[in-house]
Amino acid sequence: MEEILIISNYYPPEKGAASNRIEQLALKLHQKNYRVSVICPLGNYPKGELFPEYKRKFSVTEKRENITVKRLWIYPSISKNLIVRLLSVVSFSLSLFFYLLFKKTPQKVVVQSPPLLLSFISVFVLSLKNKKIILNVSDLWPLAAVELNALKEHSFSHKFSLFLERFIYKKATLILGQSDEILTHIKSIFPSKNCFLYRNFPDHMISKLELKTDSNTLEKQPIKIFYAGLLGIAQGVFEMCEKLDLKNLHIELHVFGDGAEKNQLEALISSQKEQKIFFHGMMERKELHETLKSFDVAIVPLKTRIYGSVPSKIFEYTALGFPVLYFGGGEGGTIVEENNLGWVAEVENFEELNDKIIEISKLTKEELLVIKKRVFETSKSAFNLDIQMNDLIAKDVF
Hints:
Elements: E1 2-7, H1 17-31, E2 34-41, E3 59-64, E4 67-72, H2 82-102, E5 108-113, H3 116-128, E6 132-137, H4 143-147, H5 156-171, E7 174-177, H6 180-189, E8 195-197, H7 215-218, E9 223-230, H8 237-243, E10 251-258, H9 262-271, E11 277-281, H10 285-291, E12 297-301, H11 313-318, E13 324-327, H12 331-338, E14 342-344, H13 350-361, H14 365-382, H15 385-394
């Protein structure tokens, strides 16, 4: 059985799309007869504090669903203080540097990027050891940071980040990108680099639609839109909730998640009960999916159009049969429109978003059930993880 290592800044029991997609990759590689191991920090995300089972520990080795997970020391933080946040990133990067330098690792290694510093450390050491480096790029940094106003263009930090970005692209044996835009960007820098599209398709292993939409018993109930995920700057959920107008509509918005905007969001919801917005906090993935079975539409927002970004929530929730209301711009909107997966509102255009919600509110439960069935069947054929993985393995990517 061939060995492969995955290096990531996130892994369950941490929550969020980043940890879910890395776990999905690890599990699928295991199913394809690889012996998979993962290196990641001690669990701390998204709260920025070590989970109880990892406190007062320098490193932990554990088994999760046949995956060997090595967790290294980190000084966790989600502080808004740049120096404190940098200290957190550097702490795990140093742990990782010495581990990779002195410990034996498999010949094939998947390195997740971003974070840039983490991927730089990994690629630097692994290139010295002549490993096969499979760089998995899920977002374009520092470009995304500039678009989110988290980094000032032409600043020292920006120039340093550009150096890190070019280094990891150059030294990687091959590159996986989650979007065509990511691959186009990388090819513009290194035209001869071997690049492959790797979408973050889920593998829920369900063969039939399990959503509950019984028109006889639920017709009087409001249509339920939900957001489930991180409550951070990039998603812009707080601003979206501020500008939605649900007061006179037969519709509700339910928010599941945790993150930097949680307290603001809770305060907003408690002060505007007439808006019919409800907050449920963070749930385990399986519990969340079970809770959502009686819901109707998934909303996928982004604060601003981020070049290269395709939220994995599009694939995650259409695979369960949920039509998507996409509010993020870019390639994600194209995927929703071309596959007839739901509705698209222009990013940052809250008037159009409210118009789309009015349109959704006029649907009957029978009409929603028809849409759900169509979305479920489309997802099964168009977003098939097994087909994608078999194709990449046949091309000797892994």
